Write the structure tokens for this entry.
Amino acid sequence: MSYWHQMYRRPTRSERVEVENGEARFESLMAKKLSERDRKFAESLKKQFEDGGKLSFKQVECLEKMEQRYSPASVLRREKWAQSYKKSHEPTAKICARYYRTTTYFRDLSTKILLDEDFIPTEKQFNALTKNKYALKAIAAATEPPAFPMGSLAKIRANSNLVTRRDLHNQVGLVVANHPIGLYASSTLLVNGEHVKLEDRCLKAAAPKKKK
């Protein structure tokens, strides 16, 4: 035996074990309304079981998880969640999805939420999408009243980190539109005949003109 084979032994095949009531369990599982992905996986496990009557420890764990996922209690819980989502949570999910579609995170999930009216994320997916600190900012930006309502005057901050165009610093503009999307709400101002879109954090209230 070479030195390499002495030092780096090839991994042995995973030990395979008997599946208690395997035939009946697979028959019961396959009769349920599985997702396309789960059905393909279950069929693969079933074929391996039928070929040798055994599965690896890991495969048995996967079988048990799938049985739990499609138990009557789990199915009922998902049905209740689907009803609750459509009734109460879908608007919040869409707010976060619109934000995340502009990032590299949750992009596939966000696309499904926005473009497929029949798609319902799992409760776990919904919580991951909407409960983090960035999502909470996006929700606040979309649901709170605008800091600078349409028709009001706002002054552009003289802060180069926020406003790169120095010619706009300290200029006062008329707010003509609000854009409550993203982490920070934005507004469009009419400044010296030009429409300028800025995040609201770049603005401050314009001081009223003093009476002469």
